[in-house]
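To close the section, here is one more complete example, presented without commentary so you can practise reading it yourself. The ligand is adenine.
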Amino acid sequence: MKEELLQLAEAMPKAELHLHIEGSLEPELVFKLAKRNQVQLDYASVENLKAAYSFNNLQEFLDVYYAGMSVLLTEDDFYDLTWAYLQRVHEEKVVHVEIFFDPQAHLERGVPLTVQLAGIHGALEAGKATLGISYRLILSFLRHLPESSALETLELAKPHLDQIDGFGLDSSEKGFPPENFQQVFAECKKLGKPITVHAGEEGPPEYVWQALDLLKVDRIDHGNRALEDDALVERLAKDKMTLTVCPLSNLKLCVVEDLKEHPLLTMLDKGLHAMVNSDDPAYFGGYLLDNYRALIEQLPVTRQQLHQLARNAFTSAWLSDEDKARHLAAVDEVFAG
Ligand code: ADE
Ligand code: ZN
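Output:
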């Protein structure tokens, strides 16, 4: 049974909608770019750096994540980072990606938005042309910084809206509620762009309510703690709101103690529109297929639930109805066989 599901997970076309491109920066590439850019690292070797990948909570991870990305300085760096991710997931039959980038983290180091965009967008276009992977690029604001910084970043982004498909909110959650960002997301909406916000990863259900009611989000990233509030679960189900769930991330950041306790199947049972993602695969021990594999191995996933998850990934994507139908037909064909 599990063997059949593992084979289906491998064979099915996949979409990933919650991926921080800076979180796909592998230790080997950190060292390569540090050398290329003459950046001094606090770690003596790849092994040393890998040994630091043990986290008790989100903040401990973020400290390492922001330190790691300090090697990203040039257009080539952003290109190489994005290209490495696309090549890796292409091998796993990922055919559509919607990826975040954190421009404020790079602006702080003096890297212009135009440089970041040229590298990331250039690689995404190359991936589309040569690997057949379609994409959306999501500019994510850092919630530990004030809203004024997000508003300034949005001004910088305005000349590049042809390359930015949506807006997000990430970084330290507790103490930085969605309500702090009402003005900037209202502007994003006015620009006609969809929005997706990290909420309920570590933060309380109240933050998910705020994301829905105050920011008018189109998706919720994570959303685990929504399960603590029955009225919220009902609302999310009624709205068919997508939750971009990240199982290995939840394990590594101690959102769950054991994958056997992961709430993904409970979410599906309650009628929630959940789907599977890798979040920051270089740090959390696995790319998208590894997340599906871990779920199949640790939870009593049924064939029907795996099929549902595969479909949810495409129905939640910011794709045209026509493209969604094409991908869904390909998913259904794998499950019909
Ligand atoms: N930035 C990168 N990964 C993140 C996560 N899991 N939660 C919040 N911010 C992040
Ligand atoms: Zn995330």
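Once you have examined the tokens, check your reading against these statements. The first helix runs from residue 2 to 11. Strands lie at 14-20, 94-101, 134-142, 166-170, 195-199, 219-222, 242-245, 273-276.
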